[in-house]
Amino acid sequence: MRLLLPAALMAVSFITTDAPAQPADAWPQKPITLIVPFPAGSGSDVVGRIYAKAITEALKVPAVVDNRPGANAMIGSQLVANAAPDGYTVLIGSGTANAVNYALFADRITYKPQSFTTVSLVSAGPVVMFAQKALEGATLQALVAAAAKSGKGLTCGNGNAVTQVACEVFRLQAKLDVVSVPYKGNAQSLQDVAGGQISIAFSDMSAASPFVGNDRVRAVAVAANDRLPAIGGVPTFKEQGYPDFQFLAWTAVFVPAKTPPAVVQKLNDAALHMLRMAEWERQREAGSGIPVTGELKSSQEFVATEIAKWARYILQTGVKPQ
């Protein structure tokens, strides 16, 4: 299936044109730093490392990944928001850092949508619930029934704001005692599921693929309308009695606001180069990602729509930050 980008736009401008003019052929002249606000092994980290290769191939300069996890991706994101708008400091952003956080942490977040220019949407895919292999209940209904009968409930790992909200909404819809356990990234939460420290976790497939491939966790339900090819036997939440349970994880490239348009375009060209790379296509298929175009305008429209959607969602559900 292909991601359809809504036409509705939030009243937020992501491209500014008042930056000093810069000749298109004068940039880049030195290495580019890619800030990933999640730990190594996360979905964002995987994207960042392949994008770094694409920059080197397309723009002929080195690109270095710098992982700056913490505070639900706000530490690394703030670093880029404060950076010079020259294109040499780039954020590998996400639904967490660049959509959910604005509403979920409205009273403490120190950067805003206007702090960034969207360069390219490079990946998108549904979130999946994973459980301990030894956890009772082969299906979602059986798992919920077993947890309710035991009286112990479940512990739900989450490595970002998207998966935190997924844990909370699951608690509300399942009418079950579910304790949300925060981690620096989804890979870390899955590690504890595999080790038996927590019951379940929500994750994108990019972070989960190594655990699924090694048969260390079991997928329980897909938070989308359709099953995923990589785990085709796993039913959706909708198929298992939860019709309104859909969560999309996505990754996009951002730069500080007022970065010259010519620089933004070159970084977008590098992103489009990445989307054509065989290595990226293999990674996307392994992670059950939805194909995206990566084009500048549609990417900016998508991010604006996601910001508005999550603001409404969090207001309606009353989910609170951890």
Please render the helix and strand layout as text.
Blueprint lengths: L31 E5 L6 H17 L3 E5 L6 H8 L7 E6 H10 L11 E16 L8 H11 L3 E5 L2 H14 L3 E5 L3 H10 L4 E5 H9 L4 E5 L25 E9 L4 H16 L1 H9 L9 H22 L5
Parallel strand pairs: 1-2, 1-3, 5-6, 5-7
Antiparallel strand pairs: 3-9, 4-7, 4-8, 4-9
- The helix tally amounts to 10
Instruction: Kindly report the name of the CATH homologous superfamily of the largest domain.
Output: Bordetella uptake gene, domain 1
The CATH level-2 architecture of the largest domain is identified as 3-Layer(aba) Sandwich
Spatial gap, N to C terminus:
34 Å
- The CATH topology of the largest domain is given as D-Maltodextrin-Binding Protein, domain 2
Could you tell me the strand content as a percent range?
15-25%
Number of domains: 2
The 3D shape can be described as globular
The Rg value, from CA coordinates, equals 19 Å
Largest sheet: 9 strands, mixed
CATH class bucket of the largest domain: Alpha Beta
Order of helices and strands: EHEHEHEHEHEHEHEEHHH
- Whole-number mean pLDDT: 89
Helix fraction bin: 25-40%
- Tell how many strands the DSSP assignment holds: 9
Q: Kindly name the structural category.
A: alpha/beta
Low-confidence stretches: 1-22
